[in-house]
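=== RUN LOG ===
request id: a7f3
mode: sequence -> structure
chains: 1
length: 280
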Amino acid sequence: MTMQDVCGNNGLREIDSRDDDNHNGTYPASRELGSDSCLEDKLKAFGEELEMTLSTTSFNTNTSAIQECKSNVSKGYTLSRFNSSTPSMFGIDKPRFDHFMSMVDSASKKNGVQSVPVAEVYISMGAEFGRTFADTKSKELAVQLFEEAFMICQAKLGDSHDLTIECRVALGKVCLSLERYDEALDCFCMAVYMREALLGELHQSVSELWVLISSVHQATSKLELALKASAKALTGYRNTYGDKHATVIGVLKTIAQIHIGMGNGSKANDIHKYVRLHSP
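=== RESULT ===
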């Protein structure tokens, strides 16, 4: 089973196009290194929105906000998410945002705007903006942060560097949460191609990517492709952990669910029996 059998043309078309595309495989194709003014504008606008929120919403005086806070606490959320006057919809609060912007400014002055230290700050910011409880606007900003970090890392470190690959994966995860499935699949398939070349098909980090690829195919109801991707993940995990590890059992459960979705109840039952026999 080849990677193209599981990914289709996603990711591979970027490799195939490098000889004749002007962007030489850079993602995204429409941007050039150093063109981060759009990102700067978005960050500035986001900071202003956070500031405006602070000036118009007070948890100490606004009754509805107080009731919302109490309701969230009753649902089990921690107070730390609500102690900064920033609505919970945002992936980051104002003090944390200001801290990141200060880090970007410091790294830019010391190393240059398009330096790896700046990219590392963007990656940290993207991780905070892209959290599951964040709103769509925050996640879209995370996409831009990861894109900018990826372009810097690709130019400065190369495609095969760990940090460049990590940027691809992080970008793919946010795209997946935004239901931008084609973009997510592009990121994961390119990342798995690079990691297989560097570490081998059976490496644990390669299996982690096959799990993500499978999740994209499941979300788009491409169950045969999802099954193939999960099978590749299972092979690598078994090579690393053996047959009884919790990670292996988890992938087997996923495979069983895919079989159920495909109408293969007997295969799913066989897997469930195996899982019960080997689960700790």
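=== NOTES ===
The CA atoms of residues 6 and 53 lie 45 Å apart.
Confidence is low (pLDDT under 50) at residues 11-35, 57-63, 73-88.
=== END ===
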